[in-house]
Amino acid sequence: MLSLTIPRAALRSAVAPRQFAAAAAASSVRYASTKSLTEAVAEIVPAKREQLAKLKSEHGDASLGDSKVSHLIGGMRGLKCMLWEGSVLDAEKGITFHGKSIPVCQKELPTAKDIGRPGKEMLPESMLWLLLTGKIPTAEEAKGLSQDLVSRAKLPNFVEKIIDSFPKSLHPMTQFSAAVSALNHDSKFAAAYNAGVKKTEYWQPTLEDSLDLIAKLPAIAARIYYNVFGKGDGKQAVDPNMDIVENFSHMLGYGNSEGLTDYLRLYVAVHSDHEGGNVSAHTAHLVGSALSDPYLAYAAALNGLAGPLHGLANQEVLNWSLELEKAVGSKPTDQQITDYLWDTLKSGRVVPGYGHAVLRQPDPRFTALSQYCDTRPELQESSIVQLVQRLSKLAPSVLKEHGKTKNPYPNVDAGSGCVLYTYGLDEFKFYTVLFGVARAYGALPQLVFDRILGLPIERPKSLSMNALEALLKK
To answer: Active-site residue among 148, 273, 413, 450?
Structure first.
């Protein structure tokens, strides 16, 4: 339900905060002697709040650098003005999750094999635990979280009916956002807020909503996939013995492909978080700062992700790569590829998949996905995968010589789509939906942190051009 539809005072006695907390704890799935994710997050709350209080009291007036006119009119690019706990993006080192690089995460986070499932890649459930707690889960904790998420994965009937009512011509991302918004009907945070939950306890129902939403996103995506493209089982059946991505792969109709299933685990994990300034993550944080529940906040984030300058980029890359393959053949020479790159640049177009707003080195996410291709014979034999990998070696020198690209190296979008295409998942309009399933693993934990720390509503100061000119004359 929307938190503003019912007067808060009228419901203040409906659900006592501690009754809610007890009910949430009782509903959590417990396994042997390991702690649940909720308990693991609760352990870090006092230290996080103390850290923020110390920063405020001791360094509140410290300068982080001057804001410039270029920040104001340039999309705030590079302006240090957000607190984001899960990940930090460095121009040279790339993304780290609580200080851990992608190669370190691949080495340390529990994998499908560690919880008894086919596959070797790190589990998105493991990444979720890391993003929420800053700690590596044990295999038992990862398995417990995986089973907890699977237990939450079933969609309410009314949401299924809403999705089924959409015309096939409606873009999958529009359907995705609308279905996520509809889940707000069952928001635990909205109910707890209306009942008068203490501000210091906001994080608990926010975490419950976030886990519920992350668990249900695959079923939403799969039902959209079935309705629009006619693929998958159409039932969104959930097997409690499978992990969340394995269930997703089966829902999409690719459950027999261990290669695609394991790739999707890696895809979701490395796409989960990319600091807070990107459009989708920032939107979730901004909308959530108004105390909108996680469903409303993430639905807004998905609308940002749907933009061609953000989540649609990977399909543009694949389109361009397929045009290249059509022009030069499946076994082109290096010179043919180089000539095509120059033809693209001289025509005034950019080479999609190259360059990044922050990075000045090859994107470690691209590296991880490319290395995955090296482990699978079917991907090594794919002409489009081979072409994308050759491009990653040839394009940087061309872009450097061209001289108009600050970062001539491949970003994650350069390589993510060709693997999906090779495995038969070739519906380009659906690619951003997959991105939307993944980004929730990073954006929603930050909502939990926002409420652990009691961050205020985001409200920057704006100026008109006339006001800016007047200010500059002073």
So the answer is: 413
Q: What is the pTM of this model?
A: 0.90
Residues 162 and 306 in one domain: yes
Q: What is the chain's mean pLDDT, rounded?
A: 91
Range of the domain at 349: 317-423
User: Do 277 and 389 sit in the same domain of this protein?
Assistant: no
Whether residues 186 and 334 share a domain: the answer is: no
> Which string of DSSP letters, residue by residue, matches 82-129?
----SEEEETTTEEEETTEEHHHHHHHS-BTGGGTSS--SBPHHHHHH
DSSP-derived pairing of the beta strands 100-101 and 87-90: unpaired
* Residue 413 is a catalytic residue: yes
184, 226: one domain: yes
Active site residue 356: yes
Of 310, 339, 402, 426, which residue is the catalytic one?
A: 310
Instruction: Exactly one of 250, 274, 285, 356 is catalytic; name it.
Output: 356
Please state which of the ranges 41-50, 302-311, 449-458 shows the lowest mean pLDDT.
302-311
Listed residue (394, 373, 369, 368) closest to 383, CA to CA = 373
164 and 240 share one domain: yes
Q: By C-alpha distance, which of 132, 180, 148 is closest to 30?
A: 148
